[in-house]
Design a protein that fits this description.
Elements (H helix, E strand, L loop, with lengths): L1 H36 L6 H32 L2 E3 L10 E8 L27 E7 L5 E7 L16 H18 L18 E6 L5 H14 L6 E5 L1 H4 L7 H6 L5 E5 L9 H9 L4 E5 L3 E3 L10 H6 L1 E5 L17 H5 L9 E9 L4 H12 L4 H4 L9 H9 L4 E2 L5 E7 L2 E10 L5 E5 L16 H5 L10 H8 L16 E5 L11 E3 L11 E3 L9 E5 L8 H36 L1
Length: about 575
């Protein structure tokens, strides 16, 4: 402490000596000029300009040095905001303070400072200077290095820094409420009862064929009897005529329940969090609708890792040394949450296994992270959607979870030695393939012709008449070869990471592989086979699930046929009613 208090005095001493030296230098230059004025052969005009410029440069240098020392001196009084606060501070923004050496605690660069309302340039190190309006203290908040601390699309301004600084306090309040004895999530049964396990999915119109195919595989191919909740937004499903009908037909004689999402904020990725949070199941296996297991996943609820921790998560392609979403050590995320940086794989939330009873507090924090407004995760693009919110909530609460250790593999197709991965392959705790998440090339089941579509009318004859529904069903019942399915086969090979290789060598590339593949298709993996000794490729024909994609494509096609049949029936009914309306 004595050393810190003596530092300002020494700095002011240096400043005084520097100013004195600069003045003496200027006087010396002026004295020399007077002497030279009386020297023989002196050129007054040219020499005088040179002397004046030298004096100006010397004074400017002294002024800049003085300003630099003053700014550095001021920075010593701006402290890092203490962690662990439980009371919101009344903070006001002073300015963005730019620093050098790619460090937020580096020497100040005053000329790069910005007012609170201006966007801070990408890659600019520094911090937001805030003042506590009650104590007058100055704090460094939202510290940044040269590395991207926020998402590239984020517009970061220090104007939002006071909310950034107080976010931990709001999180703490949520934690305290959730840790209160007796706290429970919605739809939880009171008192001791047998735990109910189930699968939760969220759908929207374009994903219905995938969901239908996945459920058919679960029931008819894998023999899974777990009850299923299908969550949806009614306003979304109404946008496409009869879009939910194939799933309703599937649920007639099955333990499938439809649940509506009624929160206006629960859109896009937030629907997943809403569904898990409000599920009626005690223990939930959430599955994205385009994610299919290769074996009955019921065993996961009895696995050692789940029984021990109550939560199992799966890794994404990305880690701090190789990340698309800037989740590295210098991300502002860690300061926002006031938790230490964790060097681990990012989370992929296409599948989440959680005990809602045991982890009610953690899920309450996930819910808060998702629905709090204004939302710093979204504003600063600190994470991508919901995918890391689960592990971050668990880390914040220091709750136990198991992250699958085997990095994701990639299923895709090989053409002329070029590999295009279009499906993420996740593993069980033993390193065996368990989930195939078709997230880069989804099933469609074929195009549906809508009565409001011109193509629909042109395909029905001269007067727009709808063909007899029985005749249409006969046509659809005709057997077809596997290559005639509307969705193409995209699984011929799986590219996997060797268990003997260090984690630092795991790097999944994103690329286009045209002309062998569509120029619009984003591929994952390694473009050319054999370019990395840390990855190996196996033919999917040698696996136990080599027929799985054929089942999925067939079931997706049947979903499309059911959907089209319903659309046709609606159109036929409307057509037959038309004369009566005209007659009225």
């Amino acid at each position: 402490m004595q050393h810190a208090s003596s530092s300002p005095a020494r700095r002011y001493g240096v400043l005084h000596y520097l100013l004195l030296g600069s003045l003496l230098y200027a006087l010396a230059v002026l004295s020399m000029s007077v002497f030279n004025l009386h020297s023989p052969g002196y050129l007054p005009s040219a020499r005088l300009h040179t002397i004046v410029d030298s004096v100006k440069n010397g004074l400017n240098h002294a002024r800049r040095a003085s300003d630099q020392i003053r700014e550095d001196e001021h920075a010593l009084n701006v402290h890092v905001l203490p962690t662990g606060g439980t009371v919101e501070r009344r903070l006001k923004c002073i300015a963005w303070r730019a620093t050098a050496n790619c460090r937020p605690d580096g020497p100040r660069i005053p000329e790069r400072d910005r007012p609170c309302t201006k966007t801070v340039p990408s890659g600019q190190p520094g911090y937001c200077e805030l003042q506590d309006e009650d104590s007058g203290e100055l704090f460094r908040v939202a510290r940044r290095t040269c590395d991207e601390a926020v998402g590239k699309a984020a517009l970061f301004r220090c104007l939002e820094a006071p909310r950034f600084a107080n976010f931990h306090v709001l999180t703490h309040k949520v934690m305290q409420r959730a840790l209160t004895p007796g706290f429970a999530l919605p739809n939880m049964m009171e008192g001791p009862s047998e735990l109910q396990d189930g699968i939760v999915m969220v759908i929207y119109p374009k994903i219905v064929a995938s969901a239908y195919a996945s459920i058919r595989v679960l029931r008819e191919v894998l023999g899974c009897r777990l009850p299923i909740e299908i969550w949806f937004r009614p306003d979304e499903m109404r946008k496409v005529t009869a879009s939910i009908d194939p799933l309703r037909q599937l649920a007639v004689n099955d333990t499938i329940e439809f649940r509506e999402i009624d929160d206006p904020l629960a859109i896009e990725f937030a629907t997943k969090v809403f569904a898990i949070y409000h599920s009626a199941f005690d223990r939930v296996l959430f599955l994205d609708s385009d994610n299919v297991p290769v074996q009955d996943p019921t065993f996961l609820f009895q696995s050692h890792e789940f029984m021990k921790t109550g939560a199992v998560f799966w890794p994404d392609f990305w880690q701090p040394s190789h990340t698309l979403f800037h989740l590295h050590q210098d991300s502002m995320l860690w300061e926002l949450l006031q938790i230490p940086f964790v060097d681990m794989f990012e989370q992929e939330s296409g599948q989440v296994l959680v005990n809602r009873r045991r982890h009610a507090a953690s899920l309450e924090i996930v819910n808060f992270f998702t629905f709090h407004r204004p939302n710093p995760f979204m504003q600063l693009k600190l994470v991508w959607g919901d995918k890391d919110l689960f592990r971050l909530a668990w880390l914040k609460l220091q709750a136990p979870f198991h992250m699958i250790k085997t990095p994701p593999a990639v299923a895709g197709k090989v053409i002329n030695g070029l590999f295009c991965g279009m499906t993420m392959v996740q593993h069980d705790t033993q390193g065996n393939e368990l989930f195939l998440h078709r997230n880069s090339h989804k099933l469609t089941g074929g195009a549906i012709l809508n009565p409001a579509d011109k193509k629909f009318k042109s395909s029905r004859g001269t007067h727009g008449r709808v063909e007899d529904s029985q005749h249409a069903e006969t046509k659809r019942a005709k057997p077809i070869e596997s290559e005639d399915y509307p969705d193409p086969a995209i699984w011929t090979h799986i590219m996997s990471f060797r268990t003997s290789s260090p984690r630092s060598e795991y790097e999944i590339e994103t690329y286009h592989a045209d002309p062998e593949f569509s120029k619009d298709q984003i591929c994952y993996g390694r473009r050319r086979l054999g370019t990395s000794t840390h990855f190996y490729v196996q033919d999917i024909a040698g696996t136990d699930f080599f027929r799985l994609e054929t089942y999925l494509r067939r079931f997706a096609m049947e979903a499309g046929q059911l959907h089209q049949a319903t659309v046709d029936a609606i159109a036929a009914e409307q057509f037959h009613r038309r004369p009566f309306r005209q007659q009225d």
